[in-house]
Amino acid sequence: MAQSVNITELNLPQLEMLKNQLDQMYVPGKLHDVEHVLIDVGTGYYVEKTAEDAKDFFKRKIDFLTKQMEKIQPALQEKHVMKQAVMEMMSQKIQQLTALGATQAAKA
């Protein structure tokens, strides 16, 4: 929301906007009061805020999520390296078993 609509630059009393419907479908809508907006704060709760307060809320939310992503990124990279090592080991074992099976079939 913060990136798609810059609330501070709006000056029209009836703003054309897209209203999120069912997280999948967007339909045209009009914003009659550009000074007060209703924002989704999570878990089904909505809060009415001024446009400036809403902008500050989304900035803090974006900053928080960015910091959380930065915290978990090293752990995710480590897990990816470990997964690659396991996949390589499994591939080697499969090749060994395939070669062993071919050798045993040739002897029989």
Key traits:
two-stranded antiparallel sheet; two-stranded antiparallel ribbon; 108 residues; alpha+beta
Tell me the layout of helices and strands:
Elements: E1 15-21, E2 25-31, E3 36-42, E4 45-50, H1 51-107
Question: How would you describe what is shown here?
Answer:
GO terms for molecular function: unfolded protein binding. The protein has one helix and four strands. The chain is of the alpha+beta class. The protein is rod-shaped and about 85 Å long. The termini are far apart. It has one helix at residues 51-107, and strands at 15-21, 25-31, 36-42, 45-50. The strands form two sheets. Strands 1-2 form a two-stranded antiparallel ribbon. Strands 3-4 form a two-stranded antiparallel sheet.
Short description:
With 108 residues, this protein is an alpha+beta fold.
The end-to-end distance, rounded to whole angstroms, is 69 Å
Helix count from the secondary structure assignment: 1
Identify the overall geometry. Answer: rod-shaped
What's the number of extended β-strand segments? 4
Pfam family, one: Prefoldin
Organism: Pipistrellus kuhlii (Kuhl's pipistrelle)
Protein name: Prefoldin subunit 5
GO molecular function: unfolded protein binding
